[in-house]
Amino acid sequence: MNDQWAERTCAQSLARAARLWPDAQALLIEGESLSFSELWEEVRCTAAGLRRLGLRKGDHFAICMGNNRLWCVLFLAAGTLGAVTVPINTRFKADELAYCLRQADVRMLAISGRFLKIDFLSMLREIAPAIDSALPDDSLPLLHTVLVEGAEPPAGCVSIDQVRAAALQSPDEYSEGVAVDDTLLIQYTSGTTAYPKGAMLSHRNMIRDAFEVGRRLDLRPGDRYFSGRPLFHAAGTTMSLLCSIEAGACYLTTPSFDTAQVLDIMERERCTHTSGNDTMFLMMMGHPDFPRRKLSLRAGWAAATESVMRQIIERMGIHGLCSDRKSTRLNSSHANISYAVFCLKK
Question: Could you give the C-alpha distances from 249 to 17, 82, 211, 244, in angstroms and in order?
């Protein structure tokens, strides 16, 4: 990986990847594959469509869906416009969703009709009945557009397909003048002691972190990084998707973490890197098929205890394993485990 850092926005990061590795695979999700040049083209087209539908620089744009190609493209397109993505935790209940949309001043929302047996449109209807007629609703006066994926949109919403249709009317119409200090994403905390709090992350915050994490993981062009971490979390956006783009690696994920499917993908696609928490790794190592799997993993990071870290090294063969816990170094013949969270100065 190139060790030279240069300030860049989200769009500049992807444009750089498309220039350096145009034909290399950038995404592989649910059988859908895009090269870096194809991803950049789709992001620009989507950005034009979102702008045509009313999204502007500085607007807050929420995404509520599982990990998929569309999530990635919408996030990168919003960043290209200078809009601010608000990732919605797909485990939120109606009151939490309402709080997040209201507290974050969301103006546009992209939402799945249903995910993991949760009917998100019904949940949204509880909050804002006007989706069945015309937005805005009195409960969410700033929300003017809801884009629906995977279901028939209510009368007050539009299908996600309208984004591409709108882009065709003005394919080169997207915002200029996005700066590295502009906010790229509002990350909500877990809300352990109260309602979640929104942390404002700039382009510089996220892209620099992604660059440094990739360097620490020895992520290189052509590597294949499977991450089951949800894109509504910084571990998904910064430490997985953006990290892969910065390094020129392919990002692979699944809408939800199905252990058998994940093991199959990592073996079949010869993934070189992965990441997860202790539960995810224990599920993989405890699966009946695990002993028969031939994995190609060489590096990654884990939020796990020392005992689980030892198992990951010894049983999964991940010799370059980093931890996001307190600095640790194990006396192992296989590998050293080091702290992989970075506190970066501007």
Answer: 9, 25, 12, 5
Identify the segments of the chain with pLDDT beneath 50. 326-346
H or E element, residue 179: none
| Bond prior to 136 in cis (omega within 30° of 0) | yes
CB-based contact 225:219 (threshold 8 Å): yes
**CA gap 345, 8 in Å, rounded:** 15
- Supply the angle between the helices 36-52 and 10-20 in degrees, to the nearest 10: 150
Backbone angles phi, psi at 322, to 5 degrees: -110, 155
| Cα gap 37→102, rounded to integer Å | 36
Answer for the pair 145, 131: CB distance below 8 angstroms, yes or no: no
CA–CA separation, 217 vs 322, rounded Å?
A: 7
pLDDT of residue 343: 33
Rounded to 10 degrees, what is the CA torsion of 20, 24, 28, 34?
80
Q: What is the pLDDT of residue 325?
A: 59
In this prediction, residue 191 carries a pLDDT of 60
State the DSSP string of 208-248: HHHHHHHHHTT--TT-EEEE-S-TTSHHHIIIIIIHHHHHT
- For residue 314, CA distances in Å to 169, 233, 238, 275, 333 come to 55, 28, 27, 16, 10
* Pairing, β 114-115 against β 118-119: antiparallel
Give the per-residue pLDDT at 324. Answer: 66
What pLDDT, on the 0 to 100 scale, is given for residue 164? 83
Residues written for the chain: 346
Tens-digit pLDDT profile for residues 150-177: 999 999 999 999 998 887 766 666 656 8
Task: Mark residue 294 as left, alpha or beta (left: phi above 0; alpha: psi -120 to 50; beta: remaining).
Answer: beta
